[in-house]
Each structure stands twice: as C-alpha cells, then as structure tokens.
Specification:
This protein is α+β, with helices and mostly antiparallel strands. The protein contains 11 helices and 12 strands. The longest helix is centred in the middle third of the chain and has 21 residues, at 173-193. It is globular and about 60 Å long. Bound molecules: guanosine-5'-monophosphate and zinc ion.
Length: 302
C-alpha cells in the first residue's frame, strides 16, 4: 500500500475524514474542523489588520461569468458543471426506468446557470468590476469558498471539493507584487509557528493539452506562481499548501478593472488550502490533537 492510501485509511479509521465512497469527497469530523477554524484565526492574526473587505460566495458561480473567465480554455479537465432535470412527466418516467435498469440516466440533464467554483477568487473579479474604478491606492479582499476540481485521487491531500481561503489584492504592479511578497514571508512564519517544514518554489497551474505547455513555460519563466510546500504523504514530493499568484494585468484587462487614474489594475491572489494545511498538521504531529506540541496548540487555539 502506498503512503497516500495508508494515510487516507488512518484518517478514516480515526474518524477525522469520513468516507463517502467517492475518492476526494470526504466528510470531516468536528476535530478536523477545529483545526481549520484555529488556522483561520491564525490567518486573521496576520492579515486581520490589513483592512481587507470580506466576502463569502457559495461554492457555485454564474456560468456566463465562468465562460468569460476562460477557465474552459485552460482547465477543461478540472471543471464541474451543475446540470438538472428539466423534462416532462414522460421524460421523468423514462429517467426512472433508466435508473432502475442501471442504465445511464444523466444524458438528458440540462445545464443550469451554475457551475462549481474552481477557485475562491473567480466570482470576485466581475463583482468588483461592476462597482466601477478602484481607488489608486488599491483594494484588498478576503475570501473563502469550497472549490471543485475534478481530479479523483486516493491522496487525501488531493480532494475534489475543498476549501480555499484567499486574499486578493488589486492595484498597481508594485502594490500587488509587494502584497504577494508580504504573504510569502507571513506564510513561512505562520508554518514555522505550527512546527511545519516548508519550502517555497516556483510553480505552474495544470494548463490543459499541448497549448497548455506554452502557458506553463510562460508562467514559470515569469515567476507568476509560487507555492509553499509542506510534506504531507511524502518528503520527496511535498504538497502545495499555499499559492501566491501574480496575474499581471490579465484579469484587469479581461474584467475591465481600472484604477481611478484610468490605468488597468494589476491583481494578485494568495490562497491557503485549508484541508491541506490541516492534513499537514495531522501528518506531522500525529492524529491525536492532545499530543501536539503545546506551542502548536497555542498558535491555533490560545
Ligand atoms: P491553486 O489555485 O494554486 O491551484 O490552489 C490554491 C490552493 O488550494 C493550493 O495551494 C492548495 O493548497 C489548495 N488546493 C489546490 N488543489 C487542491 C486539491 O486538490 N485538494 C485540496 N485539498 N487542496 C487543494
Ligand atoms: Zn485566486
């Protein structure tokens, strides 16, 4: 059995994660959630005084805006769409017959106006663009959302529905790149308080297909994405628990985000993978929270 499967089994046995029968779709125990809320409090200790505007969107977003975002161009393999039954009574009868016969029944389902949110910041850009120009001094937002990515796996750190906490900064190039650097430094300090070993490395998003290779190279060459990596199931291949993304003015252009002086806004976002951070803590300090070092417990809950 590999390390990922055995860690997943131990998480199920301890009750921290709850098996649903689908890889990457898990319930979480109260204890697991306490770790996540403790970590979110710690985030607040670092970022709370920055004056970010908090917004919470549901885990589904407007399909038309998702289409405009270009997600299907870059990551079609990860997207999840919400479909519903929209048929007649006759259609309903044949649907039930299909289910009874164990046949494929979902083909007649029709797309709704909702798709599953792929990253916490996706619903934000069009929302902010609608408000009109941003102050020249920039703007800061605090987000958290369940996100969906279709990548079933036995690795407990790769889930299909997981929570992402994000700070998103909009403003000039200097402003948003300084914001990104600030959170790289804070991220390292936070994880060190939690007794976790980290490295920060340049990274890329999983762009689809042959055209995607160019996007990957471009992103890496320009240092547009960094990840904070922590060993969860492997020290040779540590897991990305935070990401630090500089979008240049691409979202500013796409969504029409402008500053009051008329220039196009640059944007950057910093994302915390909340389940991954909790899993890193359980992998490193053990499955019994009571036995964790006092300094770690204090950092989360004191
Ligand atoms: P990104 O948008 O950089 O891919 O994701 C932001 C953060 O979300 C990542 O650094 C990671 O911590 C978390 N994340 C990304 N994919 C997954 C996943 O499949 N499962 C879980 N649990 N977290 C993920
Ligand atoms: Zn983001």
């Amino acid at each position: 059995m590999d390390m990922q499967t055995s860690f997943l089994d131990r998480l199920f046995e301890s009750g921290l994660l709850i098996d649903t029968g689908v890889d990457g779709l898990y319930g979480r125990s109260g204890q697991f959630e306490d770790v996540i809320s403790g970590f979110e409090r710690l985030i607040g200790q670092y970022g709370g005084a920055d004056g970010a505007e908090a917004m919470r969107f549901p885990p589904g977003m407007n399909r038309a805006l998702f289409e405009k975002s270009g997600y299907m161009k870059s990551f079609p393999q990860l997207a999840g769409t919400v479909h519903s039954f929209c048929g007649s009574e006759l259609d309903h009868m044949s649907l039930l017959q299909c289910i009874d016969a164990g046949e494929e029944w979902t083909k007649g389902q029709e797309a709704t106006d909702i798709v599953l949110t792929p990253a916490a910041c996706y619903p934000l850009y069009p929302t902010v663009a609608k408000r009109g120009p941003l102050p020249n001094a920039g703007a800061l937002f605090d987000l958290q959302s369940y996100c969906f990515r279709h990548e079933p796996s036995k690795d407990p750190a790769r889930q299909q529905l997981f929570r992402m906490r994000e700070y998103v900064c909009m403003g000039t190039e200097d402003h948003v790149t300084a914001f990104r650097q600030l959170w790289m430094d804070r991220g390292v300090e936070m994880m060190s308080k939690l007794g976790l070993d980290v490295v920060i490395d340049v990274a890329n998003d999983p762009f689809f297909g042959r055209a995607g290779k160019m996007m990957v190279n471009n992103q890496r060459d320009q240092n547009l994405k960094f990840e904070l990596l922590i060993p969860v199931t492997s020290s040779a291949k540590p897991t990305a628990c935070m990401s630090f993304n500089y979008h240049q003015d691409s979202f500013g252009q796409k969504w029409g985000l402008a500053l009051e002086d008329g220039s196009v806004a640059h944007t950057a976002c910093v994302g915390f993978g909340l389940e991954r951070i909790a899993l890193a803590l359980f992998a490193h300090h053990g499955l019994e929270v009571e036995t964790w070092p006092i300094a770690v417990r204090e950092a989360l809950w004191a």
